Amino acid sequence: MNIAILFSGYLRCFNETINSLKDNLLDNNCDIYLHYSKNSNETKYYNKDISIENIEKFIPLKSIIYSDNLLLSNNSKENNTLNQNYKLYILNQHIKTISTIQNN
User: Fold this and answer.
1) Does residue 36 contact residue 8 with C-beta atoms inside 8 Å?
2) Fewest beta carbons within 10 Å, which of 36, 66, 87, 88?
3) What are the extents of the domains in the chain?
4) Which residues partner with 35 through β-bridges?
5) pLDDT greater than 80 at residue 30
């Protein structure tokens, strides 16, 4: 059984942390799942666009989900938290589906 590592949200600073992730966290026993936001320029934390192809050169992604943020609350902090949790929920559902397919 592999360890599932879930990344979700904006990909800000991914280029700066990718080597540390690779050296300290990721190994051959990890399945890495990514759910990231299309509308990353809507956040005050936006840094720069990050290429998924560049990330895949360093980290073998098992699955990628790419979507807009949802408006779940008019309070921006609450909305960000709800979106983050929703993305993790979607990733977990996706992992269950992949696991079911692979085990049949």
Assistant:
1) yes
2) 66
3) 3-103
4) 8, 65
5) yes
> Taking residues 8-19, what's their average pLDDT?
77
Which residues of the chain form beta strands (DSSP E)? 3-9, 30-37, 61-67
Structure confidence by residue, pLDDT tens digits, 36-94: 877 655 556 555 667 788 788 878 888 889 888 889 999 989 998 999 899 999 999 99
Judge contact between 46 and 12, C-beta under 8 A. Answer: yes
Q: How many residues does the chain have?
A: 104
Rounded Cα–Cα distance for residues 30 and 79 (Å): 30
Give the residue among 93, 80, 63 at the shortest CA–CA distance from 10.
Answer: 80
The residue written with tokens 């049949």 in the block is 104
Decide if 98 contacts 2 (C-beta within 8 A). Answer: no
> Is residue 69 a contact partner of residue 83, using CB atoms and an 8 Å limit?
yes
pLDDT on residue 52? 80
CA torsion angle 7 23 62 46 (round to 10): 30
